[in-house]
Write a structure and sequence with these properties.
CATH architecture of the largest domain in chain B: 2-Layer Sandwich
Largest sheet of chain A: 6 strands, parallel
Number of domains of chain B: 2
Largest sheet of chain B: 5 strands, antiparallel
Helix content of chain A: 25-40%
Number of domains of chain A: 3
Helix content of chain B: 25-40%
Number of strands of chain B: 9
Strand order of the largest sheet of chain A: 3-2-4-5-7-6
Distance between the termini of chain B: 23 Å
CATH class of the largest domain in chain B: Alpha Beta
Strand content of chain A: 15-25%
Bound molecules: thiamine diphosphate
Shape of chain A: globular
CATH architecture of the largest domain in chain A: 3-Layer(aba) Sandwich
CATH class of the largest domain in chain A: Alpha Beta
Radius of gyration of chain B: 19 Å
CATH topology of the largest domain in chain A: Rossmann fold
Oligomer: heterodimer
CATH superfamily of the largest domain in chain A: Thiamin diphosphate (ThDP)-binding fold, Pyr/PP domains
Number of strands of chain A: 20
Radius of gyration of chain A: 24 Å
Number of helices of chain B: 4
Strand content of chain B: 35-45%
Chain lengths: 563, 165
């Protein structure tokens, strides 16, 4: 069928079952926008390109489908960068389509020209520059395929302006053949057998699960392995929700702000099984002391993750769907009772740690404390909401005190730690999951980084609830200054004349301010159950710390405790 | 330890930037990198000599490079029976009284003189790295004006192509 390049892009989106795109128009994509208009293709207009890419990412994380965003050349494209890097670090499947100046103008520092392909090379799974309309269908087909398969990630397709107008005889390729890209879905069965042998002998085995479990949709298999064997589980920030927090074998998050029991278990384990994790420095603390008494097993689909940070004694490559299914088959060869007998003393040990030093804070405080807020939200939503956070102290309190039940219910910028992620990602998440309660927890710093998206949320009447924990400081920065920089609060104060409630209402999101402990449940309950978007500004003290805390570069068991 | 990697890549724009960007970002120690066309029009072969402290570092280099979509295959030629060559052009001062000596050196190394004028000559030498180093060392005494080296290329001995290994 004959059509223009712009129409071909839309046809590709249709073929890929893209329900909606998040985008922002401009010169280089005007032809594409004309085609979107004529096709009445579902499109959401965030108020900043960074909003568009985070929204596409939030949509992708909630649905597991590829999120799509569009931006124009030059500044439009460069505004995507933070969001692309965010998606890359957390392996989120996103396709970003950018306009480029016309082919004849490329390389001449033309108006609104930026080498976005060059710029995004280290932060994309792959990227393309399309200068010939004939390549367009093949490139888009590949882009979606690469974004969602193997270890997912963002792919950028930069399309020269004149390509949108050029004519093409459109055929959508049925399959993709890339000589250099063959994700390993099924690994080596011997590695599973080896792991099983080790498991049978271990006295203190520990599962350490991460975002790979969510990405591969294999949380359910993991749950079965855990409930059959009773082997304790800990999680990275990105793994929260994969195993329900109220599962008795789950000891929560490990790392810099991990639980005491989790970090102690990691220090003492004799067999650590990392499942879809990256062994990031926020998790390992002092690298060469990490799980120093343990044999390490690493399950991952990406061979480059194995032995990158932590050296693995056994590597299990392949899709976790495959490897965990195989492992489940093996562990079932022994009865529940047998496993129970083997790990009971170890479980006992973990339970003691947990009882000795649970997560805690000053529950008798007269002031509203952030931990109380998260616990209350957790009770009101019974763990059924989709929780999106920004980055900072509130992110860690949310990770610690919300009772997660489901995978894909906790969206946070883990790898890059991007302030400004929360609000637009919540927008995208709500679009992807219209029937779910989507709650964004953010701080007063990060809120301002993308608060323009309140307008988008209001105008689309998306029922996103924003809980703004206002401590009048860049809390996480201030905490480090308090602990490691002699209380020199260098430029971390956010005391302001601005009024967040008015700001929110001005953008069309009804808002309330909350500062009394007695009103906490009532106000939150109302905001969460009301229809439509709401913002609750909660006034919290400025000097509350996130604890426990492993200072950067310390051993995991060297935690500063709280409570 | 030094490793020689044969990296087969799609012959597409941007592939070299991808590879060199990745190498510098991940702080891998690269000694030389040489790229050129191959027997297949849509494939480029890049020979990379990398210095790796241990097997983990080498594994990381190979795995990270393999992750690039346009990288088709990587073969470690180190320890395999293979031919390693580099080409150098050396412009050296050649005053009349030194010429005979220089010609002698060129013959011993089985090099060629590819350009001569009143003051200088260009010597072309092909061989393993050590041989080129040795010749450059010898020529120093006569006054080297410039040196250009291609970086190493390498190929397995025997009937098979690297892509089939
Ligand atoms: C874009 C960006 N800039 C800077 C930082 C560094 N940073 C990490 S946490 C933080 C403070 C966040 O303050 P706020 O949003 O008020 O949240 P709080 O920590 O108080 O909960 C800063 C500045 C970052 N993570 N991202």
């Amino acid at each position: 069928m004959k059509m223009t390049g712009a129409e071909a892009v839309i046809e590709c989106l249709r073929q890929e079952n893209v329900e909606v795109v998040f985008g922002y128009p401009g010169g280089a994509v005007l032809t594409l926008y004309d085609a979107l208009y004529l096709a009445e293709y579902p499109h959401i207009l965030p108020r900043h390109e960074q909003g568009a890419i985070h929204a596409a990412d939030g949509y992708a994380r909630v649905t597991g489908k590829v999120g799509v965003c569009i931006a124009t050349s030059g500044p439009g494209a460069t505004n995507l960068i933070t969001g692309i890097a965010t998606a890359y670090m957390d392996s989120s499947p996103v396709v970003a389509i950018t306009g480029q100046v016309a082919v004849s103008l490329i390389g001449r520092d033309s108006f609104q020209e930026a080498d976005i392909r060059g710029i995004t090379t280290p932060i994309t799974k792959h990227n393309y520059l399309v200068k010939d309309v004939k390549e367009l269908p093949q490139v888009l087909k590949e882009a979606f395929y690469i974004a969602r398969t193997g270890r997912p990630g963002p792919v950028l397709v930069d399309i020269a302006k004149d390509v949108f107008a050029a004519e093409i005889d459109f055929v959508y390729p049925q399959e993709v053949k890339l000589r250099g890209y063959n994700p390993i879905y099924e690994g080596d069965i011997n590695s599973i057998n080896e792991v099983y042998q080790e498991l049978c002998q271990a006295k203190k085995p520990l599962f350490f699960v991460g975002g790979g479990l969510t990405l591969s949709n294999s949380s359910e298999i993991m749950r079965q392995i855990v409930s059959h064997t009773g082997i304790p589980v800990v999680s990275s920030l990105m793994g929260l929700g994969c195993i329900p927090d109220d599962n008795p074998h789950n000891y929560g998050m490990i790392g810099m702000h991990g639980t005491y029991a989790g970090n102690m278990a990691t220090t003492e384990t004799d067999l650590l099984l990392g499942i879809g994790v990256r062994f990031d420095d926020r998790v390992t603390g002092l690298l060469h002391e990490f799980a120093a008494k343990a044999k390490i097993v690493h399950f991952d689909i990406d061979p480059a993750e194995v032995n990158k940070n932590v050296h693995a004694d056994i590597k299990v490559l392949g899709d976790l769907q495959w490897s965990l299914e195989k492992l489940l088959e093996r562990v079932k060869e022994r009865s529940n009772l047998e496993w129970q007998e083997q790990v009971a003393p170890w479980q006992q040990q973990l339970n003691n740690w947990k009882k000795e030093k649970p997560l805690t804070y000053n529950k008798n405080s007269e002031q509203v404390l952030p931990q109380m807020v998260i616990e209350t939200v957790s009770e009101i939503t019974r763990g059924e909401a989709i929780i999106v956070t920004d980055v900072g102290q509130h992110q860690m309190w949310t990770a610690q005190y919300y009772n997660f039940k489901h995978p894909r219910s906790f969206l946070t910028s883990g790898g890059l730690g991007t302030m400004g992620y929360g609000i637009p990602a919540a927008l995208g998440a709500q679009v992807g999951a219209p029937d779910k309660k989507v709650i964004c927890v953010c701080g007063d710093g990060g809120f301002m980084m993308n608060c323009q998206e309140l307008m988008t949320i209001a105008d689309l009447n998306l029922p996103v609830k924003i809980i703004l924990l206002n401590n009048q400081v860049l809390g996480m920065v201030a905490q480090w200054q308090r602990k490691f920089y002699n209380h020199n609060y260098s430029h971390s104060s956010l005391k302001t004349k601005a009024d967040f409630v008015k700001l929110s209402e001005a953008m069309g999101v009804p808002a309330v301010r909350l500062d009394k402990k007695e009103q906490l449940s009532e106000v939150l309950e109302k905001a969460i159950t009301d229809e439509g978007p709401r913002l609750v500004e909660v006034c919290i003290p400025e000097n509350e710390d996130v604890l426990p805390m492993v200072p950067a570069g310390a051993r995991l068991d060297q935690m500063i405790m709280g409570g | 330890m030094k490793h020689t990697l044969a990296v087969l890549v799609e012959n597409k724009p941007g592939v070299l930037t991808h590879i060199s960007g990745l190498i510098s970002r991940r702080a891998f120690n690269i000694e030389s990198i040489a790229a050129g066309y191959t027997e297949e029009p849509d494939m480029t072969r890049i020979t990379i000599v990398v210095e790796a402290d241990d097997k983990y570092e080498l594994e990381q280099v190979v795995n990270q490079l393999s992750k690039l979509i346009d990288v088709i295959k990587i073969i470690d030629l180190t320890g395999q029976d293979s031919v390693h060559r580099e080409l150098a052009l050396i412009k050296v001062k050649a005053i009349p009284e030194n010429r005979t000596e220089l010609i002698g050196i060129v013959e011993i190394f089985r090099a060629h003189i590819v350009d001569v004028n009143k003051e200088t000559m260009i010597i072309e030498l092909t061989g393993e790295e050590m041989k080129i180093d040795a010749m450059c060392e010898l020529l120093k005494d006569y006054g080297i004006i410039e040196i250009v080296r291609t970086g190493k290329v390498a190929m397995c001995r025997g009937p098979k192509a690297a892509k089939e290994v």
